[in-house]
Amino acid sequence: MNSDHLHRIYLDLSTPHVADACMRLGVPVRSAPAATRPLWAGTHFAGRAVPTRHYGSVDIFLEAIDSSEPGDVLVVDNSGRDDEACVGDLIALEARQAGLAGIVIWGYHRDSAELGTIRLPIVSLGAFPVGPQRLESRDQDALTHASVGGHTITHNDFVLGDDDGTLFIPLPTRKP
Question: For residues 89 and 112, what is the distance between their CA atoms, to the nearest angstrom?
């Protein structure tokens, strides 16, 4: 099932509706921590997860965006760090240009005024003016999974976000 089809299914659904449905169906409810909030009111986005883990350089985000499809959602794991912002206007512009539906950041963003102009749906722990001052070695599986809070997000997840929060829903598996 592609992101466009799933986006149409979830277009009119809120995260509370989907969380309730997951509970009734016995699907684990995985949500970003409550402190992870949209940058502005009226945010609503949905799409297949494109996970990536941050190591100090935006190059990994560009690589993830290059491997994405329109309608996907970039899920950035910066370990909830509170000493740096890892996504700003340049990555948001690249993501919008690639047709991504939004960005979820387990960490902080910067360039708030510019992000407001770009208007790509983004959720994060908040704004912080300082970018990364580190460059770590990247794990080989840095583009296969990301952590958000205590949850591991993979390409087999779908992301739904709005003013009430962000959910990570397992994509349906095809039966033989």
Answer: 8
